[in-house]
Specification:
With about 280 residues, the chain is an alpha+beta fold. Helix content is about 35%, strand content about 15%. The chain is globular, with a radius of gyration of 22 Å. It comes from Stylonychia lemnae (Ciliate).
Amino acid sequence: MRSKVVKFLNYYYLKLLNLEDFTRLLNSAISEITDDFQNEQDLCNFIATKVNKTFSKDNLQYRVLVKKDFNRNQSAVLFVFHHGICDGVGFLNFLSAIQDQFDVKNLPFVRERTLMEQIQRYMKILTAIFYLNQGQVQKIERSQLFQNTNNNQTEFVISNDFKLDELKVLSRNYNCSINDILIAATILANQRLSNIYGFGDFKIYDALIAINQRSPLTQLQDLILRNQTMSYYLKVQLDQEDLFKEKNATQVIPKILKTFQSELQKVKQDDREGLVL
């Protein structure tokens, strides 16, 4: 939190600042939002267009933006940080730590290991190479949609924006997470795009799903801004004959969800942290 980025031998490191430099940079990292908006969608649009910018190496790797009059009864605080500092769960732990009173009940859910899982975790050390190789992404033949372009620039995007309220409604209607909806929508959009380009080889969709698994935080002194780098390789087979038969998206989405939800459920029971030696 008191560091800037330095580059040495083509590697990037966090360098601790002295108190004077830290105070100066902290003042410039905190600002007030003057834009006029009063709902979540406007806030999301503001983040997408004005907040998601890269950080200069000479500055603190985070910014704090305050909107005092977000609506009649609430203020809003945006905390934008470089992913190299911490991941999402680590940041939620940090938010709880700076409250007036630290309460473990406000912390994000962390699945605790049973005694048997702890024993199995240490047994994996003996076969670590097998498990590490198992977690490597296999080389597959991807559709022409995902081939690199000559100029290495993005040629198309799935969507330029999204509606937060609509995502919440869809999530409730399909009884799934917002992440599930986004994966299904991405698959459907890519399939329709492959039809437009005349590609008949979109048979596999694969993605790396980030996993945040750590020991539960029980006291404030144990807080660290950890960055979890483990991931789960999700591979979705799309060669079912009737998967994209209907043209109505509301009929296709449930079918797509069924192709990967059971596989994605394994992430919740997969003890990936045990693979970190």
